[in-house]
Design a protein that fits this description.
With about 475 residues, the protein is an alpha+beta fold. It has two domains: about 130 residues, Roll (Ubiquitin-like (UB roll)), CATH 3.10.20; about 270 residues, Glutamine synthetase/guanido kinase, catalytic domain (Creatine Kinase, Chain A, domain 2, 2-Layer Sandwich). Helices cover about 35% and strands about 20% of the residues. Strands 7, 8, 9, 10, 11, 12, 13, 14, 15 and 16 form a ten-stranded mixed sheet that branches. Strands 1, 2, 3, 4, 5 and 6 form a six-stranded mixed sheet that branches. A hairpin with a 5-residue loop joins β1 and β2. It is globular and about 60 Å long. The termini are far apart.
Length: about 475
């Protein structure tokens, strides 16, 4: 991005260009062009949860709060009411929290005519923010960085598989014999099947109309795999836009008889990443400015050291499911060790870009990650590097998958949970409330998987026993 673009997003105090103001929304409603407003709060998995409000009712309440059951921030992926959370549960009676709209996030949903979409913040009924809400967690880390004199620029890059058949079709088939939208590797291809070309056109146009800034859409290395790159921007706005994108891409695909799959490891040997492109900015410009032949800028070096030192202890925040850890396999472009390198896509942290465009690519999160939490974890790790100055290992110049001297990525969610729950780095960054809450979420995820019998087990037990 240009210098002007980089400084614009840092200086912007109002809504991102193209989003609606409350006044503009009121005009749409008065003309009958908007009749419903989807008010959403991201849940533990990063999915938008909330209510569809009558647009006039929303405008009447835009400065107040809408009640929602607190369990939307304390549940597993199946929306199962669970015990063990301090926020809510059977002992607390599953009471309400309040969701207050963030007027800087109002956007149209072009695939849902007459509908606007608004992100909200969760509050206890006495008016205090809900400490475990993903937007609040991220905002807290951004404020910590601001106290150190830095703002964060974020660009995201997400991958997903596109399957033939609607979600109902896949369910009826028991998720067997899944058919990709195209049958082979079309990485960087510019010629696509007509159905896919049509989908890409509609997706691009829909995201543009929703003011979600897409840089590029491409086919990836696996059959049916897509990659979207989003333009650099302000962090919270980027996360909110990504949340809206997940709604839009699913709807556009379903209407064309297809289903997107954001599993981190949708099949053996295939991985879907959610890479974070990050840089730190001060009034003096990009603190990561790097020309390749020079030594690393000191701030960049400390940030890398913090990421390599802290991220091993924060994995449930960016690799939250049992499936997440099946993505970390050698020579799959997903890291297996906490390493860094110059333009090395096998490392956990990649230094890329030149001059004021230089930044870090954190390749640890998978597509199943909650983007708010993944970015919060990366920010907390960078703060750890800036404040505590851990040692920085040498960069990996060769194959990083042979880096046996580096810390390995956790083998599974159980191992990740053991080094997260009660860890000093995690507690110093997020506090007891957040660590305890997301540790409980990881425990629930593990308990669910441990009681499920899989097709692979049947294959081993019936045909090979």
């Amino acid at each position: 991005m240009t210098d002007e673009e980089q400084h614009t997003f840092l200086d912007r105090k109002d809504s991102p260009a193209g989003l609606l103001s409350t006044r503009e929304l009121r005009g749409y409603v008065e003309r009958g062009e908007i009749t419903m407003v989807r008010l959403a709060v991201p849940d533990m998995q990063g999915r938008p949860k909330g209510k569809i409000l009558s647009a006039p009712v929303f405008l009447d309440r835009v400065d107040s709060e809408t009640d929602m059951c607190a369990y939307i921030l304390a549940t597993d992926i199946n929306m199962t009411p669970l015990d063990g959370f301090a926020l809510t549960g059977w002992e607390q009676g599953y009471g309400d929290l309040g969701v207050k709209a963030d007027p800087a996030t109002i956007r149209l949903l072009p695939h849902q005519p007459g509908t606007a979409f608004v992100m909200g913040d969760a509050f206890q009924l006495e008016g205090t923010p809900v400490g475990v809400a993903p937007r609040h967690i991220l905002r807290t880390q951004l404020e910590r960085l601001a106290d150190l004199g830095y703002h964060v620029a974020l660009g995201t890059e997400t991958e997903f598989l596109l399957h033939q058949g609607t979600a109902e079709d896949l369910l009826q088939a028991g998720y067997h014999a899944l058919r990709p939208a195209w049958p082979h590797n079309l990485d960087y291809a510019l010629g696509h099947p007509p159905q896919v070309t049509d989908f890409f056109h509609h997706l691009h146009d829909g995201l543009k109309e929703a003011h979600i800034p897409v840089e590029a859409i491409k086919t990836e290395g696996a059959a049916g795999q897509v990659e979207l790159t989003f333009v650099y921007g302000e962090v919270m706005a980027a996360c909110d836009a990504y949340t809206a994108f997940r709604l839009i891409v699913n709807d556009i695909a379903q209407r064309r008889g297809m289903t997107p799959n954001f599993m981190a490891a949708p099949s053996t040997g295939v991985g879907n990443g959610l890479h974070l492109h990050l840089s730190l900015w001060s009034p003096h410009g990009n603190a990561f400015t790097y020309h390749g032949s020079d030594d690393l800028p000191p701030v960049m070096g400390r940030a890398i050291a913090g990421l390599l030192s802290a991220m091993p202890h924060l994995a449930p925040l960016y690799a939250p499911t049992a499936n997440s850890y099946k993505r970390y396999a050698p020579h799959t472009f997903a890291p297996t060790h906490y390493t860094w390198g110059i333009d090395n896509r096998g490392c956990a942290v990649r230094v890329t870009g030149v001059g004021e465009n230089a930044h870090l690519e954190v390749r640890l999160p998978g597509a199943d990650a909650n983007l708010y939490l993944a970015v919060a974890a990366a920010c907390a790790a960078i703060i750890h590097g800036l404040q505590d100055a851990p040692d920085l290992a040498a960069p990996r110049a060769g194959d990083p998958y042979t880096a046996d001297d580096a810390t390995p990525v956790p083998a599974d969610l159980a191992e990740a949970l053991r080094v997260f729950d009660g860890n000093k780095i995690a507690l110093d960054a997020f506090g007891d409330e957040v660590v305890g809450h997301y540790a409980r979420g990881a425990q629930a995820e593990l308990a669910w998987y441990r009681t499920r019998v899989t097709d692979i087990e049947r294959e081993h037990g019936i045909s090979r026993a």
